[in-house]
Amino acid sequence: MKNTTALYCALLLAGASLTGVHAQTPAAGSKPTVAAPLAPADLYAALGEKAGIVRLVDDFVERLVRHPRIGSQFKDTKPAALKEGLVDQFCQLSGGPCVYEGPDMAELHADMDINKGDFNALVEALQAAMDAQGIAFAQQNRLLALLAPMHRDIITVH
Amino acid sequence: MQYKPLSLLAALALASPLAQADTGKLLLTGGVSSITGTAGGGITPWAVIGSNATEGEWGASAFTTRAVTQDYALTSYGAALAWNERVELSVARQDFDAGAAVALNGIAPFGVQPGQHIRMDVLGLKLRVAGDAVLDADTWMPQIAVGLEHKRVRPGSLQSVFDFLGADTQSTDFYVSATKLVLDKGLLLNATLRSTRANQNGLLGFGAGAPGRNSRSLQPEFSVAWLLRRDLAIGVEVRFKPDNLQATGRAAGLGSALREDAWKDVFIAWAPTKNLSLTLAWADLGRVVPGITNGRRQSGAYLSAQVAF
Question: Measured between alpha carbons, how far is B263 from B164 in angstroms, rounded to an integer?
């Protein structure tokens, strides 16, 4: 009986180590990936690639310009230009093949009075737009995590 | 005197002439109201400043919480006032149904009344000193706050037991909290370190006569919450506590009758609107004066409602 138990344990251990080796082999063989982009490429896919991002930004900007709290901040902004800039930004940040070439975020917001509550209202509008596009909550948070640090350049009133 | 701060702050919070209509915090990022009134999880403060108010805004919140275990029950209610996502002032009143304590009369003629409740008032002050738990998503730097909780307990006919144990009826806890939302994972982490003399959060007084511990000790508290949706979070908490009274009880021949354990809970918090959150938890309070409860661990449901502006 004891022998059987010992044998069983040995088999289990052997099985475990074999499984371990097997699991490690591909990882050990693969080369380390090239410098990680800002986001893993699958976020770009999760946003529906360029077409999905265009739909998202169209809806987002519509929500911004008629927002009761922050809509007036966009009265001097051309929606088409805003959309183009945001599409490039979201696309690039999410690992897509785009380059944002618009103005520096700090420069862009320097003359505006934007407090943290305004910034959060913008985040909520983006969340609502992502909901409307059917983007999963976990994916929404991955995009927000890339955008949130911009608060340092966007919030001008503390 | 004990009543004034509570009613004043409650009036401010509920009438909220100071709280603005259009406050701008993101949903659930102000935490919920802990049992001591300050913003956090259910049993531990977080570094967040409560209410819906963010920078440049005034906000207020009010809450009530009920927890029932095998032998005890706790009702807590209170309010908090927040300014500029910087300072939070909170008050809470706790009503602890300590009816089980009548059994202490079998140990000595303490004169404990049947159905005795222990009441405690908590005045809290919290100051955010650094960081932004939510928006600084590209660094590991947490939001950090320091705070205090001044507690006064009124044990009623249990005063004789407090005297016997050498437990004081007032003391102040000091704490530092660090809170970080790992935004891309929807994971909120909090660690709090508390300097305290409190026995069972203060409901059994503060400190103990020799050979129990009468001095402060540092106790860690942890929360982990996972955002399932913007309006829904689940999580776990653990709060370590001193075991000041046990040695006093042992010296009095009571064995481990006064042993105290860590508090733990698992919770789900739901914010159906910006102004309302509901928290349901299962709390394990460990042993609470096990000498009069057959050594049972105290566990049970915890339900809390908060309104915030």
Answer: 25
What the block records as the tokens of B221 is 């508290």
Lowest mean pLDDT among A1-5, B34-38, B218-222: A1-5
pTM, two decimals, is: 0.87
On whether the CB atoms of residues B283 and B95 are closer than 8 A, the answer is no
Render pLDDT for A32-77 as a digit per residue (tens, 0 to 9): 444 444 556 699 999 999 999 999 999 999 999 999 999 999 999 9
ipTM: 0.89
Bridge partners of residue B264, in order along the sequence: B238, B284
Choose the closest CB to B135 out of A69, A121, A149: A149
Are B183 and A145 inside 8 Å of each other by CB? yes
What confidence tier does B24 reach under pLDDT thresholds 50, 70, 90? Answer: confident
Identify all chain A residues contacting B23, using CB atoms and an 8 Å cutoff.
117
C-alpha B238/C-alpha B150 separation (Å) is: 22
DSSP for B16-49, please give it.
-SSS-TT--PPTTTT-EE-TTSSEESSSSB-SS-
Q: Give the residue from A47, A134, A132 showing the smallest Cα distance to A90.
A: A47
Q: What is the pLDDT of residue B4?
A: 55
pLDDT at A113: 94
From chain B, the residues in CB contact with A145 under 8 A are 137-138, 183-184
Q: Once rounded to an integer, what is the mean pLDDT over residues B191-214?
A: 98
Q: Do B137 and A146 touch (CB under 8 A)?
A: yes
Residues in B lying within 8 Å of A, measured between beta carbons: 22-26, 54-57, 85, 132, 134-139, 183-186, 227-230
